[in-house]
Amino acid sequence: MSDPRQDTALRDALDRFTVPSLSQGFADRVVAVATHPEAPLPVAVPTRRDRRGGWVRGHRVIVGALAFGLMSAAAAATAIFGDVARTMLVIGPLIASIAPEKTEPRIKKAVTIKSPIVSEDQTYQAAPGDPPSVETPPLALEERRELRREFVAQKIASRLERRAEVREELGLPPRPVRPARILPVLRRLPPAERAAIVERVREIRQEQRAAPSALPDREPLIPDRGISLAPKVDLPVDVAGAIPAPTSVEPQTGDGLRTPERLEQLRRLRALRELQERRRELRRQRAQQ
Amino acid sequence: MNLATPPRADDDTLMARVALRDGEAFRTLVEGHAAKAHRIGWRMLGDATEAEDVAQEAMLKLWEQADKWQPGGAGVGAWLNRVATNLCLDRLRRRRFTSDEEVPDRVDESPLADALVDEEAMRLKAMMAVQALPDRQRAAIVLTYYEDCSNMAAAEILDMNVKAFESLLLRARQALKAALCDLRPAVQGGMA
C-alpha cells in the first residue's frame, strides 16, 4: 500500500482538506484566560424559597409524622398488625382506650370421660332401683348406660328363656347355653358393664322364677334341676369362662354353688387382677407421654 | 506541509518563563503552536468551534503544567500533538455516547456530491472521507500526513506499538483510497 505522501492522487485529495485559520484574537483570549483566571462565582443569595426552606422542611416533618401516626393507628384499629400495635408506646394506650379488650376465645379442653371403674359399691349404686342423679352430665351418661344395660339384660334373659322353653317343648334336656350372639356383644363391653348386665340378667331370671303366678304357663316348662336354677341355667360354664369375670357376679361351676369363702376368694382375686390391669394401663399411658 | 515551529531550545526557554507565569512568553507559545492544535482539532472533529475549543484547552493545559516541563524533550509541538489528539479522541468518545446522530461510515454518495466539481466540493469530499474514518485511523492519518509525525511518534501519541500503528495506518489508507477513488478521476480531470 502506497504512502499517501507518495501517492500523488491521494495526496492531492488529502491536501484539499484545508483548515481555516484561527479566529481573530484567539491568542489574546487564551492568554487572558490563562493569566486572569475567572473570579470565583459570587455567593448565591438565598432565594425566598431557600429562606422558607426551614419552615417548609419542618412543616413536612410534622405532616409526615401526623400521617404516619394516623396510618398506624388505623392499621392497629383494624388489627392489621395484630397485637403488635397494642404494645407501641403512644398508639397502644389509645387503642386500649378506644377499642375494647379483645377476648380471645378460650380453647376448651376436650372432656375425656373415662369409663367409670365400677367397684362393688358403685355397682350397687348403679342398680336400676336407685334414682339416677341428673345433676351432672356424668350421671346422665351413667343413666344412659344403665338403660342400655337393662335393655341388653332383658334381651339376653328373654332369649335364654325362650331357648329353654323350646327345648322343653321338644323334650330335650336342658343344656348349657352357648349364646353365640351374645358373647361377642358382651366381650366388647367394659368389664364393669358386662358384670352389671350379667347380674341384671340373673336378677331378671330370678324374679321370673320367683313369681310363678306372673308366668303360670311358663313355670312348668322350666326344668327342675334340684338346685337353684338362676345361676346354673342363666350363666353356664361357657359364658362364665368366655367373658372376663365380672366383679359382682357369682361365678358358677357346672356342678353347683360355690361356698361363700370361695366366692370371697374369687372376688378378691378378680379385684386384684383389675387393679393389676389398671396399673398396667397407667404404666402404658406414662410410657406414651 | 511546512509547519513553522520554533526551535526546541526556544521552547524550553519559553516554558521556563511560562512556569514563572510570564504572560508574554505564553503568548509567544500560543501564537507559535496554537494553530497546530487547531488543525488537529479541525481535522479530527470537523467543527470550527470545537477545534478552537481543543486548541484553547490544549494551550491552557500547557500553561497549567508549565512547572512540570522537562527541558530537552521533544518540544512543545510534539507535546501539543499528543494533548490535542487525546482531547479530540475524548470528545469523539463523548460525542458517540451523547449524540443520537450516527457517525457516517462512508462518503456521501449522493448524486449532488458527484455533480459538484468545484474546489469547495472537492474539499468537502476530502473532509468527509477523512471524517468517515474510525477515530484512531483518522488520528493516524492526521498525525502522519498532516502533522508530519513519524510512525514511532504517532504510535507513541496513540499509546500503541509501532507495528500496531502501521497496521492501523494501512487500514486507514485503504479506507481513504476506497472513499476517494471516485474523487481521483475528478481530481485528475480537474488538473488536466
Write a structural description:
The complex is a heterodimer of chains A (289) and B (192). Chain A has 289 residues and is mainly alpha-helical. In chain A, 56% of the residues lie in helices and 0% in strands. In chain A, helix 7 packs across helix 9 (191-210). The longest helix of chain A is centred in the middle third of the chain and has 33 residues, at 137-169. Chain A is elongated, with a radius of gyration of 53 Å. Mean pLDDT of chain A is 69; it is low at 214-256. With 192 residues, chain B is mostly helical. Chain B contains ten helices and no strands. Chain B is globular and about 55 Å long. In chain B, 38% of the residues are buried. Chains A and B meet through helix 1 and helix 2 of A and helix 2, helix 3, helix 6, helix 7 and helix 9 of B.
Largest sheet of chain A: none
What is the ordering of alpha helices and beta strands of chain B? Answer: HHHHHHHHHH
Rg of chain A from C-alpha positions? 53 Å
Strand count of chain B: 0
Strand content of chain A: under 5%
Structural class of chain B: mainly alpha
Mean pLDDT of chain A: 69
Low-confidence parts of chain B: 186-192
**Residue-averaged pLDDT of chain B:** 80
**Helix percent band of chain A:** 55-70%
Shape of chain B: globular
Looking at how many chains there are and whether they match, the oligomeric state comes to heterodimer
Number of helices of chain B: 10
Please give the alpha-carbon distance between the first and last residues of chain B.
23 Å
Structural class of chain A: mainly alpha
**Beta-strand content bin of chain B:** under 5%
Distance between the termini of chain A: 98 Å
Number of helical elements of chain A? 12
